[in-house]
Each structure stands twice: as C-alpha cells, then as structure tokens.
Specification:
The protein is of the alpha/beta class. It folds into two domains: 2-216, P-loop containing nucleotide triphosphate hydrolases (Rossmann fold), CATH 3.40.50; 222-282, Alpha-Beta Plaits, CATH 3.30.70. It is 33% helix and 31% strand. The protein contains ten helices and 14 strands. The protein has helices spanning 40-47, 88-98, 106-116, 132-144, 162-177, 189-195, 213-220, 234-238, 263-270, 285-294; strands at 2-11, 14-24, 29-34, 55-60, 63-64, 73-76, 150-154, 181-185, 198-203, 206-212, 223-230, 243-249, 252-257, 274-281. It has a six-stranded mixed sheet. Strands 2-1-4-5 form a four-stranded antiparallel sheet, with helices on one face. Strands 12-13-11-14 form a four-stranded antiparallel sheet. The longest helix is centred in the middle third of the chain and has 16 residues, at 162-177.
C-alpha cells in the first residue's frame, strides 16, 4: 500500500505541491489528474525518492521510500527512456538485473511478456529499429519486469493503436490482480473512467477534488438527459427552470440540467412525442475536470 501524507514541495518561492495526501491500497488503481504544471511530475519524483519533499512523508508498505525499496516501484512515462542502441533482449535484461531479478531466470520472464504483447519476433532487434508503439511496449515491460509493488503510469498509451491499448490494459489488470498498487495519470479522461475508482485532481499543486469517482459524480449535481426523437419542443425545454444548456450530440439531443429533480419536468414535455431514447446520465469526468479546474484560473 502507498501512503502519501501531507507532502509539500517548494522550488524557491513556488509551491509545487501543497499539502497533498492520498492512499493507494494493494490492487487499487488510483487516478492523479491535473493540467500541465499542476504538480503531478513533482509528486511522482517524490514518491520514487528522486527528490525530497520539504515536509510530509511517503510510505510504501508502511516503510519510508529509500534505496532499499525503490526497486519495488515501476514507472512508465510518456517520454521514451530507452537505450536505443541495445537490442530488446539486452534492454530488458539490463533493467531486470537493475531491479534485482535472478539473471538465470530473467529471460523466461522476458519471453512471457514479449509473447503477451505479440512482439516475440523483435527480441533481437535494436530498440531504435522499433516503431514508437512497440518502443512504448518495451518501456512498459521494462517497468514491470520484476512485478513491482507500486506502478506509476504517466500517459502510458501514447503512440499505441486501439489493439495495443487493449493488450496493455489487460497487462495492467493482471498486475492489479497480483495486488500491485497503481497510480494512473492521463489527459484522456475516458481512460481514467475505465480504470480508476478513486482519484485526486490537482490545481497548482493543491488537491481541489478527491475521493471515489462515483461519489464525485453524484455530488457534482449537474446531469445530462440524452433524448432521441422527432418533433421535440426544444424551445419549451430551454425555458424550464434548471435547464442549463441544450446541444446536439451524435444525432441525439443533450439537455444539461442542474440536478436530477428537473428530469421529470423534461419528460412531461416530450412524453407525447415519438421518443426512441430518454436517458438520464451522469456527467463525464471530462465535464467535471473542466468545471473544477477551469473555474480556478486567475
């Protein structure tokens, strides 16, 4: 389990992380979100022991992170950090040995992961000869070759097509089943909604939203009604108190309302129309992010 307790980090007079706390239990996937410059990278560096916080502490399995347990942490970053002149086998062996794996058994582990990601035929190819997507797969394998206790994923799907995203998702879920604590960061909110039950949104290093995703959506209040039908009385719907906006989305009408108590009023206006769909849906994480982060800019 990862415990981040009240960490604060200054760069000069700039407070990059402001009293941030969260926990990631074994087998939990946690979302850490924020705009560029929000403090995510600084937080990752503190967790991995690369820099020290000015105050607060980070514990992995109740132990302060230091050189004795950093091998238990895997990190996948959007930027490539591969030794491009090495072959795939040499690269993965190098990282495996660094992480303390038995050199006699490491190739079996490598073969297992190469097969899982359908790149066995690249085993003896140099990294620089691989596509960006396949390099990203090698970077992922390098991070998890030793089955870490904590895995940090920062935009892990960059450069991957939908088929390879599916392969990596399956690998992440396998690690989750093993009890790995996972921190997931991405600007693509649909991935966060797929993976994370719990999250924090940072603005200028300060958590402005935190908790279970389901609770965050419920407390946000604003809901969307998706309607498909003919001759809908849109002008009347617009005049209903509590209706915030009406948009056309992929052939459907989206009615944004203040809260779910407005929904019956909308239904009473359209119930005699030729309706093929009427669905009250939760706001997307993208909508919540824009509302919470966009309103804080100075």
């Amino acid at each position: 389990m990862l415990e981040v307790k009240n960490i604060v980090k200054y760069y000069g007079n700039n407070k990059a992380v402001d009293n941030l706390s969260f926990t990631v239990k074994n087998g939990e996937i946690f979302g850490l979100l924020g705009e560029n410059g929000a403090g995510k990278t600084t937080t990752f560096r503190i967790i991995m022991g690369l820099i020290e916080a000015n105050s607060g502490e980070v514990l992995l399995d109740h132990t302060k992170i230091n050189y004795q347990n950093t091998d238990k942490i895997g990190f996948v970053t959007e930027e490539r950090s591969l030794l491009t002149k090495l072959t795939v086998l040499e690269q993965l062996k190098f990282y495996g040995v660094l992480k303390g794996l038995d050199e006699r058994n490491i190739e079996k582990e490598i073969d297992k992961w190469l097969k899982k990601f359908e790149i066995t035929n690249y085993k003896y190819r140099k990294i620089k000869e691989l596509s960006k997507g396949n390099q990203q797969k090698i970077q992922f394998i390098s991070a998890i070759i030793n089955h870490p206790k904590l895995l940090i994923l920062d935009e892990p799907f960059t450069g991957l097509d939908p088929i390879n995203v599916k392969l990596m998702k399956e690998a992440i879920y396998d690690l989750q089943k093993e009890g790995c604590s996972i921190i997931f960061s991405s600007h693509q909110m649909e991935y966060i909604e797929d993976f994370c039950e719990k999250l924090v949104i940072l603005v200028k290093g300060r958590p402005v939203v935190s908790g279970m995703l389901k609770t965050i959506k419920e407390e946000f209040g604003i809901k969307n009604i998706m309607i498909r039908g003919e001759d809908l009385p849109l002008e009347k719907i617009k005049k209903v108190k509590g209706v915030l906006d009406i948009n056309k989305v992929r052939g459907e009408i989206e009615v944004k309302i203040e809260d779910k108590s407005i929904a019956p009023k909308i239904f009473s206006l359209i119930k005699n129309c030729n309706i093929t769909k009427y669905d009250l849906v939760e706001p997307t994480l993208n909508e919540i992010f824009i509302a919470k982060v966009g309103g804080i800019h100075e």
